[in-house]
Amino acid sequence: MPAKGDGITKRKDGRFMARYTVQTPDGPKRKPIYGRKYKEVEKKLAEARGDAARGIVYDDENQTVGKYITRWLSDSAKHTVKATSYRAYESQIRNHIVPALGKVRLSRLTPAHLQALYAAKLREGMKPASVRQIHAILHKALEQAVRFNLIPANPASKVDLPKVRQEEITPLSAVEANKLLDVTCDERDRFETLYALALTTGLRIGELLGLKWSDIDLDTRRLRVSRQLQRSQDGLIFTEPKAASRRTVDLPASTVEASSAIASARSKRRSRPVVPTRTTALCSQAI
Fold first, then answer.
1. For residues 129, 135, 136 and 141, what is the CA-based torsion angle, rounded to 10 degrees?
2. Domain 65-158 belongs to what topology?
3. Assessment of whether the complete model's pTM goes beyond 0.70
């Protein structure tokens, strides 16, 4: 049982609770600590008192997870990640994180809350990779809460994540690739180079649609990936790829031949994108 005078009491719901006082810019403030076991609360209380004595105060300002992460999205994430990442963050927060955890006090968020959320999403049929995306957002947002002294530790650092099965990719055979080119590039289709590049380089759609003729060196048979086409709230925009995605790709002879034929016909327009504007907008629907 709790010892007298140690500030730890047992609640009617079976949990133990302690209160301690910290000095804040607004004056003294009483803060509670909860736990299922007496020793757990005793340890937390000792750590909290030690932090308070050193001037370290964790105060979530009575914020809920929903209020905090929505503010983090607009004040921090929006200005530090790419437009596509921001849209993904906003969607995951609005559709999954806030409905499940939005009303939980930030200071009372536990690894168990997060583990339950991930398990529920898997039961609903969400892919493990998508669950990991939710976790990545929560971990990033809560890490900032730790840096801002809103919470003492990041609960997202203590959960078990689902394993992601790497699906085996079956590439087209040489016969299938040639058949595709025969069908799509019949009668010198003006998109022949795009199809050939897609088949032989493995570039992403956004990278293909971001190419300029100046990115292709037909003499050395190399292609430089230096930008990509992405969707934003303002429409289609060109952005720089991540550092790891900036690369030089070797081109096979067949692709160089197809590119050379079109390049010679467009020698006066080498600074324009490989794909005309109308086609860029159509193809980018798959991004």
1. 160
2. DNA polymerase; domain 1 (1.10.150)
3. no
